[in-house]
Amino acid sequence: MSDLLRVRDLTVAFHGKPVVDAVDFAVPPGGALGIVGESGSGKSMTSLAVMGLLPKGATRAGHIEFDGTDLTTLNERRMRAVRGDRIAMVFQDPLSSLNPYYTVGTQIAEAYRSHRSDVSRRAARKAAIEAMERVHIRDAARRVDEYPHQFSGGMRQRVMIAMALTTEPSLIIADEPTTALDVTVQAQILDLLAEVRRDTGAALILITHDLAVVSEVADTLIVMRHGKVVESGTAEQVFSDPRHPYTRALLDAVPRIDDEIGELQTLGGDT
Amino acid sequence: MTRYVVHRVLGMLLVLFLVCLFTYIIFFALSPDPAVQICGKNCTPERIDQIRANLGLTDPFLTQFLNFLQGLFLGRDYGGGPSAVHCPAPCLGYSFQTSQFVTDMVVQRLPVTAVVALGAAVLWLVLGVIGGLLSAVREGRFTDRFIAGLTLGGMSIPNYVLALALQYVLVVWLQWLPFPQAVRFADDPGQWFLNFIMPWTVLAIGYASSYTRLTRANVIDTLDENFVRTAKAKGLRPDLVWRRHALRPALTPIVTIAGMDFAGLLGGALITETVFGINGVGKLAADSITKNDQPVIMAVTLLAAFFVVVGNMAVDLVYSAIDPRVGKGAAS
Description:
The complex is a heterodimer.
Chain A: E1 5-14, E2 17-27, E3 32-36, H1 43-51, E4 58-66, E5 69-70, H2 76-82, E6 87-90, H3 94-97, H4 104-113, H5 121-134, H6 140-143, H7 153-165, E7 171-175, H8 183-200, E8 203-208, H9 211-217, E9 220-225, E10 228-234, H10 235-240, H11 245-252
Chain B: H1 2-30, H2 34-39, H3 45-55, H4 61-73, E1 76-78, E2 85-87, E3 94-95, E4 100-101, H5 102-137, H6 142-156, H7 159-173, H8 189-223, H9 226-233, H10 238-266, H11 270-275, H12 281-291, H13 294-322
Helix pairs in contact in B: 1-13, 5-6, 5-8, 5-10, 5-13, 6-8, 7-8, 8-10, 9-10, 10-13, 12-13
């Protein structure tokens, strides 16, 4: 089976200095890839490069094949048609990622309508309510008219996921979707992402610094450090038999419930 | 929401009362005896006493202040017997320099001040927002730096210098504008409009400069917001990203600040009105200060305070209507 997304030799550089260096990975249709790394490892830049949303001053090289098309060859207009429609993104901090001036319904409907120009306002609103129900926001028909600040952190992230779902994308990229949330809520959001993937058949790229998060959701994973992929494989492979010393160090840094009480392992500094 | 409005109105009334009280203390308790001023050179102690009695200056402070408040809301009489003068509410006092009610003097001059303030506000909003947007779009490039230079100049140049320079260049040298003449709008709208071009410009330049900087900073900050990134990630057209997600959050605070600045100017643009000989509240203030006409100075001060306080409240109410996060917490 051919891959849905195949990234080859992707390099992102700021003023000639690479922050993502010759990265390769692939996601099959409906698959789930975890990208793990510390902050500054280049994992978020990798996802923004796929979306074509790199910040000013960044340059991109390499190939990003999505569903048979190399996204790096698309012009901005055709890239816009992919963005938010075929590939949707869920960001880290749901409060700042939602516009405080508009109701959540407006913002979800906006994602839907921007790719379906023939859809009426009313139909878009209905789609927004349905999407909110699908991510288990209770009383969605009423809450659709509320503003982001009236939602809790976990509910806001559900709104972000609902926004991603309306266009039925074939790939969802979630960049640290649980980092800004309480631990108990984190598990709920991860369950929701797994459920969405199961129900819609969308592939998922989950970007995180948290190995525990990745182990719950991903089939395959890559470990990034200093912009390079240092380890890749299926989740079981990597967890049971890490090749790279950095991955081993990462795994050792995860506290386990069956550990004897002792000092927590930390990662060595870079210098 | 209702609770919020009631709260704000009560707060405003309290502030206005305190402003009245302090203005009264400053002008009537701390400044030189107005009776002596009025009496003039050929004065006798008896005459001064009589004027003091007429003005109510012999009463204790609290009585004087209550009389003043009474005049404000109900009207009051000055002096007694057949020579008594009745000042109808809202009575701000009686000017013995011009033998006029202060309220009438102020009301007469308010329209022209409002015209000056309104025209300037429109001008500086248009210039400031366009300049700021242009700067933000071309951030770091020549246009941005050029506008930054202009705004620096606009903020540094004093009003009176700009006014005189403009008059010299536009009226005397290039003769693009006619020499200002007093005309009423109804008689000659064209001349009337030309008369106001220079005052509007002079008043607007400083504000326009700071609004340009404010708009630029707000737009650049907003474009950096995560929700703008979300809007782009949705695949939204760039014009919609700008209009819905960047401009609205960036410009809302500017509109509200403009409301406050405008309200402040309703209290009179002292320098501009004086330089251009516009008979507004600002010139009234300047004239009264030179003549030490205390009731008028006090009235103008109160008026300015009144507009600032009311303007502030209006802006807050408008803000709570535009920004869903403000003010509704208590009511919902």
